[in-house]
């Protein structure tokens, strides 16, 4: 395996035959345009998608919410919401697991089309308190399956981002923010989110 010393390049695997004398060999490696540490020199990462900030305190157009048990997701507008460290000028979507019964409540984004060859990009600000399980699930097959790509069960605060593999054809991508909590007075969970961005990176 060849590991480049410069930031932003991918590792490469190859087979070489070792001889009796010293030898040098050049290797071709690809640029990792989605590298979390930064793109390779001479390359630029491009992204698309607009952040949903819940600024007006209502369920966004094209989004949906459902609760198999417990209370549905709620919203506060930017004018109503104020918390230390919270992203300026944004509202909040929130879910509660109060422990007075089991909780299983979900918030769904509107579907987004990601062009062929581009990677689905997910970004969101989250403030999660312990006492429940929070999951970010992603579907790319028309809601047949919802693999979990991010989860939290302990205190977790900050802006989180990840990408999914690109595909040879266009993908329709949708997110589900799901909070699950037990029927236990000692386990009370709170999940707050904003700046939710679903788009593409290439």
Q: How many beta-strand runs? A: 12
Q: What does the overall shape look like? A: elongated
The number of helical segments is 0
Task: Write down the overall mean pLDDT.
Answer: 91
Q: How big is the Rg?
A: 21 Å
Main pleated-sheet profile: 6 strands, antiparallel
* Secondary structural class: mainly beta
Q: What share of residues are in beta strands?
A: 35-45%
Helix content: under 10%
Low-pLDDT windows of residues: none
Cα-to-Cα separation, first versus last residue: 25 Å
SSE order: EEEEEEEEEEEE
What does this structure look like?
The radius of gyration is 21 Å and the shape is elongated. The chain has strands at 47-48, 64-69, 74-76, 92-97, 103-108, 112-114, 119-128, 133-139, 148-152, 156-163, 171-181, 189-201. Strands 1, 3, 4, 7, 10 and 12 form a six-stranded antiparallel sheet that branches. Strands 2, 5, 6, 8, 9 and 11 form a six-stranded antiparallel sheet that branches. The chain is mainly beta. 0% of the residues lie in helices and 40% in strands. It has no helices and twelve strands.
């Amino acid at each position: 395996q060849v590991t480049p010393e410069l930031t932003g390049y991918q590792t490469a695997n190859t087979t070489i035959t070792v001889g009796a004398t010293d030898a040098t060999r050049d290797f071709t490696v690809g640029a990792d345009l989605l590298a979390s540490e930064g793109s390779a020199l001479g390359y630029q990462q491009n992204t698309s998608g607009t952040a949903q900030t819940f600024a007006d305190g209502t369920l966004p157009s094209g989004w949906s919410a459902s609760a198999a048990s417990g209370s549905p997701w709620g919203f506060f507008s930017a004018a109503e919401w104020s918390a230390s460290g919270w992203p300026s000028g944004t509202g909040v979507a929130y879910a509660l697991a109060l422990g007075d019964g089991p909780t299983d409540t979900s918030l769904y984004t509107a579907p987004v089309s990601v062009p062929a060859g581009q990677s689905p990009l997910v970004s969101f600000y989250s403030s999660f308190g312990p006492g429940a399980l929070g999951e970010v699930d992603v579907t790319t097959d028309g809601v047949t399956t919802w693999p979990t790509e991010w989860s939290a069960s302990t205190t977790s605060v900050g802006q989180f981002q990840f990408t999914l593999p690109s595909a040879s054809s266009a993908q329709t991508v949708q997110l589900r923010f799901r909070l699950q909590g037990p029927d236990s007075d000692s386990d009370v969970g709170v999940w707050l989110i904003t700046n939710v961005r679903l788009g593409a990176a290439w």
